[in-house]
Amino acid sequence: MRVRLLLLLAGACAGARGETALERGKRVVEEALKGVGGSSYLSMEDRVESGRAYSFYREQLQGLSRAKIYTRYLTRPEPPVAGFFGIRERETFGKNEDNAVLFNEVGAWEVTFRGARPLTDERTKAYRESMLRNIFYILRERLGEPGLTFLSQGADIFENQPVEIVEISDADNRVVTVYFSQSTKLPVRQKFRRRNTISGDMDDEVTLFSKYRDVGGGVMWPFQILRERNGEKIFEIFSDAVAINQNLKDDLFMLPGNMKVLKPVK
Known about the structure:
Shape: globular
Structural class: alpha+beta
Mean pLDDT: 91
Number of helices: 5
CATH architecture: Clam
Number of strands: 13
Radius of gyration: 19 Å
C-alpha cells in the first residue's frame, strides 16, 4: 500500500508539471530506448540468440530443444513510412540446426532435409502482426513512423516492482500495452489482443521479459522470454548467449536456389 501510494503521488507530480498522457507516454518510451542502449541499439544490424527453448500446450511441456535464432534488421526508409516491415529471422532447432523456420520480407517456410514447405497464411500473418507489436522491434524500426502514438496509462506495481504502463498504437489501429520498469526503464511485459482467424475469438497475447544483460556496446537484451496466450504458457526461451553485429549474410535468410519447395500445408 505504501508503494502504491508513492506511485500515485508520483503520477500526481507528473500531472502537476503539466505533462499530458501523450507526453508522459512518449517520455517513457524515449527513456526505454536509452535503457536498451540508445544509439548502439539503433545501430544494431543483427543478433544471434542461442539457448534452450520450450513449447507448451495447455500448460503441458510439448517440446524441448536447443534453439538458435538469427535476426537481421533491414534499413528502414527515411523518413519512416507506415507499413514497412524491416526484419528477417531464421529460427533453428537441434544440435546440428537441421530444422529451421525462416521468415523474410517475401514469405515464410519450414526448412528440413526434405525441402522448404511454405507456412500457412495464418501463421505467416500471425508472425508479422506479432512482430509489428513487439516493443523491441518498435524501438528499433518504428519510432517516428506516421500515426504511431504513445499514451501513458499511469504507474502501477507488476511482480513487486514499480512500472510505467504505455499503450502504443499505430495508424492501422494495432495496439500493444507495454510495462516498463521505473528503475531500469526496460520493458518487462507487453500484451495485445489478436483475432484468431480459425475460431473467430480474440486471443490475449502476453510476453514477459527478464534477466537482462549487456550484449555489447551497452545494448541490453532479455535472456529469458516467456510467451502466453489466453493465460497459458506457449513458449519460453532461456538464452545461454546473445551476440550482436555478427555480419550475418543474406544467404542465411534466403532459400538456396537448388532447394526443393514442397507443397503448402492445407
